[in-house]
Amino acid sequence: MGKQEEFVLRALEERDVRFVRLWFSDVLGSLKSVAVAPAELESAFEEGIGFDGSAIEGFARVYEADMLAKPDPTSFQILPWRDEGPSTARMFCDVVMPDGSPSYADPRNVLKRNLARASELGFSFYTHPEIEFYLFKNAPEPGVDPIPVDRSGYFDHTAQSMGADFRREAITMLEAMGISVEFSHHEHGPGQQEIDLRYADAMSTADNIMTFRTVVREVALSQGIWASFMPKPFTTHPGSGMHTHLSLFEGDQNAFYEAGAEYQLSRTGRQFIAGILKHAPELSLITNQWVNSYKRMMFGTEAPSYICWGHNNRSAMVRVPMYKPLKGQSTRVELRTLDPACNPYLAYSVVLAAGLKGIKEDYELPREAEDDVWTLTDRERQSLGIDPLPESLKEAILIAEDSELLADALGEHVFDFVLRNKRAEWADYRGQVSAYERDTMLPVI
Amino acid sequence: MTAPTGRTPGGRGSLARLGFSDLEAGRRDLAALERYGPPPPDALLAILGRAADPDAATAALLRLLEAAEEARGDGGRVLLGELLEDEGFAMRLLGVLGASEALAEHLGRHPEHARELTDPTLGSTRPPAWAVRADLLRAVGADPADDLPVSAGPDAGAVDALRVEYRRLLLRLAARDLTHDVAVDDAAAELADLAAGTLDAALAVARSRVGEQHALARLAVVAMGKCGGHELNYVSDVDVVFVHEPVEGASPDAALRAATQVASQMMRICSEQTGEGTIWPVDANLRPEGKSGPLTRTLASHEGYYERWAKPWEFQALLKARPVAGDLALGREYLDVVTPFVWTAADRDGFVEEARAMRRRVVEHIPARDAERQLKLGSGGLRDVEFAVQLLQLVHGRADETIRAPTTLSALADLTRAGYVGREDGEQLHRAYSFLRTLEHRIQLHQLRRTHVVPDEEVALRRLARSMGYYNDPSASLVKAWQGHRREVRRLHEKLFYRPLLTAVAQVPGTEVRLSSAAARTRMTALGYDDPEAALRHLEALTDGVSRTASIRRTLLPVMLHWFAEGPDPDAGLFRFRRISEALRESPWYLTTLRDEGEVAERLAHVLSTSRYATDLLEREPRGVRMLLEDLAPRSAEDVGHEMAATASRQDSREKAVRAIRVVRRRELFRIAVGDLLGLTDVADVGRGLSRLTDATLQATLDVVARGVAAQRGLDQQPARLAVVAMGRYGGFELSYGSDADVLFVQEPVPGADPAAAAGFAQAVAHDVRRLLAEPGADLPLVVDADLRPEGRQGALVRTIGSYAAYYARWSQTWEAQALLRADAVVGDEGLRERFHALIDPVRYPAAGISDEGVLEVRRMKARIDHERLPRGADPQLHLKLGRGGLADIEWSVQLLQMRHAGRVEALRTPQTLAALEAAGAAGLVDAEDAAVLADGWRLASRTRNAVTLVRAKGGDELPRDVRERAAVAAVLGYPPASTDAMVNDYLRSARRVRAVVERVFWE
């Protein structure tokens, strides 16, 4: 048993921990949890905790249901939201097969494999997400419209606002779990919040996003309100995105930085962006995985609908932010398609894979989009070579089906599962008769 | 020294005897010596003759005397006088001049240092480390007694002075080493002391560079690697790690800045190139986070890192950590903090695998051009020994504190004493390692360059050899000795882990210390045995007794254990080896073959730990072990056929004859299986081999049975000609281990024979052939399946060729035409076979291709098969034959192309899938990329199917669900350990691509 495992076992004693939650993610990005008593933990470190993989969305073929969750002791944290009495702790797990080989169905393993490929090229991958979400006064009920907690707007400061209290407590709790918060403010929509996490390697960030979504919902519940990461809860208000800043490092050097280059953006950085742009339609199914995701993407402003990049151009899909002099290490690109309901392990995997492909195959970066692409006509966009992103889940599925890039980055098992699952979601959705249809047709026909 | 004899020194003959190469130059140089004194006496010549390179030694001496003379009016003459007076001095000086060009150059620049070697204590006294340190500190103008010595005086002067002093001390050491037989570990320890003192003196200079604030932090230099292990080379990077603590009252940031400055200055002072050259590079990359981490850290920061982030190899590196300079008390605190990590490292998951994988990587990364002449990294090199010793320390050191020495040779001695390494192995390894290190030292000493490559020029080799005492036929003797030691290391390295295991279970003659059974279990587990208890029981049974065979087995087992451990199922390998060995207990050749033919033993171990199919074949007749000696390529059908016919003809009944044929078949199956397992036989050749073997078996059986039936019925002449038509995968030369042989039987009455009698005869023969080959018995049965015949099972087993013609003319259905695509009449009467082919060609290759309706029918049939034939519960993704992108997908696609186009495109007329696919590609019926996807997919699925059978010993069309079996299939297919899901992923990818092509080629 290593030092870190011993540290965890000691902490369990000292902090009077009664339960340890072993966390992992299913293929769609829902957090799964197995609770074990501290006494079982020692064997969990050595052999893993067995569970029935076929019960987890997308994990296993029925007959090879036996899987093991192996806790990663470096992710040990006491959960702060049960502050009285004996406490509960959590650890993220790797999922392995009974012979010890890593499971290709485990989203953490998918990201690990992609990070390993990056590291073969000498890169490490860092991300920094800006996560948006809505706070509602009421818990969801079928047929009842959600009521936002306030009517404020972007960056508004309101006295005694529920949102501000909420953000303060959520941030305290996140920091208590070792997740650094960079920035937080009120977003455009009523009741809409944004909290930005600090830069970290992609694996930590993905773990942190999983934790974040749980913490935010726990804190909301504790205050009698409801938090949701649904990409587009209102027809009329902006959707929630998860813009993510991306950068590659070679050793301790930012590989996107080159002194004197345009926007201080290195050749590597340009190839990386080119990779993401070229494969953007394929990536959609993973970066925007729900029927609802596509409704966020059709109204302009913060959510991109067209494949282009720009410098400080807020209508572009990939934005190269203003360069801060003397901060060469901060050169990065911002990808604006992602939404907070994605599976962060898979989303970062495919984005990284596309970027690396751009680097390996030396893609040429298309010309920069300087105009607000929303204001252009279709013909203008066409003549500028700016293509649209998939407009619906269906379109995204059709494009993804032929994507070698996705199959390769996700692994065959996950690739196949996602396609099957998404086809089923689309078939389900297609069968629904919506309020829109009734509202527009019943009165007239 | 004796007075000069007066005759001219060194006639040419005597010079040659002394070892001079360039006699002319030698004579000239010796004569030139007379400028500084009397002609050199024989005694001096004899000493010159012992120098590694007498020519170079003489020339260097001449330059030295010149320089001494220049330095001081009569310096040269005085020096030569002393040399003639003092034999010890002469030996040391000439020894150095003959072996080290670099030190000779140094003496040329600093002739006064030559007198250092007059010191008579050099031969007997090793300088204590503190004295070396004091000399070096004084040289840079610092006081060794200070707590924090700071060099005084001008910086550049100190940096040069440090280099000069370093070389002076190195010169003394080299002289001791070359002339006074200092053991290699002592020389290496002295070099480490010298390095430690140098680091301390460099620190003193660094402090003066940084100024006052250097005192804000306590700074310790911890040596790692060879310097830490107290076993440094003459020239190598000195690996260090820095640790600092703020002094009381200093802010952590200021302390960090000060410590970083001192540390980086220290590194620069050692490595920078000045007029006096460089010393060696200081390498701090073993620190936490390597190059990207901060240069120095506090104790707490080190601890935090090792707790959370460190990799196994980093703990292995800590094994050699030793504080050598700066604040030694702080250095010791560091050791106290990190040492516990070292001894728990081995418990981490995958530690042993990772360590071994690391070694494999190291071996793979040596540039091929140097691999053979590498002392350090190549197979059988120094690194092998060091790695093995460290691994054993980490595995057993937690429980046993007596084996934690950081120095390789000391640790090896400790391990041997405590029984973790066999006594003889330990001693031989000790000898080999000492030899290789000495050789390395001498190579580096020559130019003080960091190199681990044995030179191949004759002059250099000769000098090296003589410096190591090989005066007769120097180069050849040296190379021979070197190769011998290398072989020895290679041999011992493999057994080192395993041999002591035997002492835990058996009474081994000799005085070895026994390994405790707990330690034996720990090691078995570390080596990859899942059930160490059972494994030790098998070992015990195998080594039981004191007979000669037991002793052979004891020498054999360690290396067999190693090979089993490399296979996917070590436990099964050992168990099966025990069974085979017990079955062959009475066969004297068995063990001696294994002992004397290394390749046989290795092949056997691989087969046993991988394949149940091959093991089963072997267990039916353990003598098959012998075949591992032979060529494992599949034999030709003619050869096998002749052998079968010959052995059958010696039997007195049909039954016995067929049994004899089956024995030959089983043996050939074993040959093909082993060739496949060892990666010697390609998947297409396996299929061809199995099909040809089936041909030979059927032909021999048919002959025997036909003769027998004719005799039984009292016929002098057989009333019918017979032929067997191979169908399906058999017809395509694509049999796999588990397949049945699909066939049609054809007969043709001989002219004048009664058709009814002919039919009866043929029926009886076909019936008997099937019965005798399928009969259960010691040898694998061959199921001959005739269900593809007209009217299936309701039809007659044998038809006349006329009846076939009539049937196909009237009744033939599309599926039958499709089945005939893979018909190949391979056995029986040659004329009949040709006539059969002529008969079916128009059926299977219609001139205009099949009708649109036919195409439709084929597609509908495929759709139905996809739906119905897949076994209940099978995973359609992983079914190799009927699943998505499986063999059926590919074969149906190819067959549809054949049915449509073979009437036109002659090259398509082949029963073999790959050949037809290639023809289709060449004719532009599918594009090249699609054809390649299908061909690769076909090969992968076929290989995987064969691998499944080899592992499980029964046919399987699906990837095994059992985890161990799946892992074994991955191993047969060449995947590294713990990557079964990677294999599945690769298969799924191939199948997905195949399916995409099939969508176009077959369905559109």
TrEMBL record, chain A:
The gene is glnA2. One of its GO terms (molecular function) is glutamine synthetase activity. Gene3D superfamilies: Glutamine synthetase, N-terminal domain (3.10.20.70), Glutamine synthetase/guanido kinase, catalytic domain (3.30.590.10). The keyword Metal-binding applies. It comes from the Bacteria. Keywords: ATP-binding, Ligase, Magnesium, Metal-binding, Nucleotide-binding. This is Glutamine synthetase. It holds the Pfam family Gln-synt_N. Its cofactor is Mg(2+). Residues 107-445 form the GS catalytic domain. The lineage of its organism: Bacteria, Bacillati, Actinomycetota, Actinomycetes, Propionibacteriales. Its EC number is 6.3.1.2. Belongs to the glutamine synthetase family. It comes from Nocardioides aquaticus. Residues 15-100 form the GS beta-grasp domain.
